[in-house]
Amino acid sequence: MISDETAGALVIRRAEPGEAEAVAALHARARATYYPHGLPPSDFDWTDAWRGSIERPDGEVLCGVREGEIVAIASFRTPEGEPADTVKLYQFHVSPDRWRAGLGSALHAACVERWLAAGRRTAVLDVHVDNRRAQAFYARQGWVPDPERTPAEDDHHLFLRWTPPGE
User: Fold this and answer.
1) Is 73 helix (H, G, I), strand (E, B) or coil?
2) Helix (H, G, I), strand (E, B) or coil at 117
3) Which of 45, 56, 57, 122 has the fewest CB atoms found within 10 Å of its own CB?
4) Order of strands, edge to edge, in the sheet holding 86-94?
């Protein structure tokens, strides 16, 4: 709970359904940074989508909270049709005004801890081709191009894979 925080420390915990609007707002701010002309127009209801992700029994949405504000989010679950030891990182965002403060690394470490505790040995994700900052972040965390998924010619995403070091 947000009330469990102390003196500016980052608390990483599961997001709650009532926080979907704050999560969607952070998501929009982060996405706007890697679209060269701003977010594409859409009538998609991201708040509703995040609420659905938060409430899913087969996935998790973690959030990093500092001083009562959600400053980082991650959403993951085993994709349909994939082996049970595989997890997909669907969303991973840090508030742009908090970049380079260690929040992403802390949140990623919390995700890895959850994955390993649940017996997941492989993680996959796709990242927007224009999002060079995220690509560099993932490379620092040990993600590599996924040899099983290469992008189609007109695809705007790169596919990455993570396995525990030494495996």
Assistant:
1) strand
2) helix
3) 57
4) 11-14, 59-66, 69-77, 86-94, 122-128, 157-162, 144-145
Query: pLDDT 10s digit of each residue in the chain, 167 long?
Result: 333 444 568 999 999 999 999 999 999 888 877 766 655 567 778 899 999 999 999 999 999 999 999 999 999 999 998 899 999 999 999 998 887 878 999 999 999 999 999 999 999 999 988 888 899 999 999 999 998 887 778 778 899 999 998 76
Model-level pTM? 0.88
Q: CA nearest 93: which of 107, 77, 109, 111?
A: 107
> Which is nearest to 107 in space by CA: 7, 30, 28, 34?
30
Here the tokens at position 163 are: 């396995």
Q: String of b and e for 43-74 (b: at least 16 CB within 10 Å)?
A: eeebbebbbebbeeeebbbbbbbbeeebbbbb
Query: For tokens 């959030």, what's the residue?
Result: 63
Residues in the chain: 167
The pairing of strands 59-66 and 69-77 is antiparallel
The H or E element containing residue 161 is strand 157-162
The position carrying tokens 């708040």 is 47
* 59: Cα separation from own chain's centroid: 12
